[in-house]
Amino acid sequence: MSDPQPFNPLDKINLGLSVAEALLGRKPISLDELGRFNGAGIYALYYIGGFETYRALATRNMSADGLVAPIYVGKAIPAGGRKGASLNATPRTNALCNRLREHAESIESAQNLRLNDFRCRYLVVDDIWIPLGESLMIAKFSPIWNNLIDGFGNHDPGKGRYQGMRTRWDVLHPGRAWADRCATRPETAKDIDREVRSHLARMELPPSPHFLVEERRARYRVNRLDDDVIDPS
């Protein structure tokens, strides 16, 4: 018989889970209805439109379970981060709002995407917890714009820095003016399209779109070996 692992609510993973679960509990809004707000934090974007490459993803997000598969997860941290001299202060920033607005501009620039086909969940978070919450969200959902189609979150590299190759996102979704100045990529949009469709056909979603439900079930399965716990469901 193995000894049960004591639960530590201050373990960094458990703290990160609480942040990620709080994000998933937020009511989603259409990205084209985003208002102004202050704060830094994390966010998730969901696609529900008719772009054929993402049909499988949109279908899952329009199921009875609601928005379950983010297409992109990101974070926005105040410029310079938190300074040691201000640990008890909350810096005033528009980092999260500005980041989401930048994403909205990228989507609006794309020739084959519509902004009102995207939904967003965002959470203002104390900036010391932001990277952990983002990492857990990406690890759980493997959003395709984070892992398979790079470049959505890129900025204009600026004059004299366009020697770099155009990103896969800009090949599949042409329209950002600065991306047209970058070097041509050997992959075509059709190449990327085939890869994305194949990936989405194989991708398995987690049993639950939430973290804490799965955590409770996992602990229940372990503890049942000792016959000393009641089913939490």
Give the terminus-to-terminus CA distance.
25 Å
Beta-strand residue percentage: 5-15%
Q: Tell me about the largest β-sheet.
A: 4 strands, antiparallel
The percentage helix is 25-40%
3D shape: globular
Structural class: alpha+beta
The neighbouring-strand order within the major sheet is 1-4-2-3
Averaging pLDDT over every residue, what do you get?
84
pLDDT under 50 segments (min length 5)? 213-233
In N-to-C order, the SSE pattern is HEEHEHEHHHHHH
H/I helix tally? 9
State Rg.
20 Å
The total count of strands amounts to: 4
Name its key features.
single chain, about 230 residues, about 10% strand, 4 strands, globular, four-stranded antiparallel sheet, alpha+beta
Commentary on this structure:
The protein is an alpha+beta fold and 233 residues long. It is 37% helix and 9% strand. The chain contains 9 helices and 4 strands. The chain has helices at residues 12-24, 55-61, 95-109, 130-141, 144-147, 168-172, 177-180, 189-202, 212-224, and strands spanning 29-30, 41-47, 72-76, 118-124. A 4-stranded antiparallel sheet has the order 1-4-2-3. Helix 1 packs across helix 4. The protein is globular and about 55 Å long.
